[in-house]
Amino acid sequence: MNDLIGFILISIGLVFDLLGCVGLVRLPDAYNRLQAATKCVTMGTCSILFGTLLVIGFTAAGMKVILCMIFLILTSPVASHAIARGSHKSGVKLWEGSVCDAYAEDNK
């Protein structure tokens, strides 16, 4: 039963990663692409890792999978925020169809 659930989670993670890659190609500006990449890593890769944990069990490799998941969950949002903030400060323009600019509102 754990193997079946693990393979389902791995499949869901692969779909998230595939959609994240499509988002990197299709979305209009750097900020939207960064959003797609962050969701891809946190949801897709963590789902793949959790599915792998269910398949291999709580062995030494399973503990490494847990550590990798924790590392990804903690670092991916922080890194994407830092990249977005840095690109906004360096003058990377938003897509003309963007609704709001939260970083510009913070500077006022």
From TrEMBL:
Pfam assignment, any one: PhaG_MnhG_YufB
Gene Ontology terms for molecular function: sodium:proton antiporter activity
Keywords on record: Membrane, Transmembrane, Transmembrane helix
Superkingdom of the organism of origin: Bacteria
Transmembrane region(s): 6-25, 37-58
PANTHER family reported for this sequence: ANTIPORTER SUBUNIT MNHG2-RELATED
Protein name: Na+/H+ antiporter subunit G
Organism: Candidatus Aquitaenariimonas noxiae
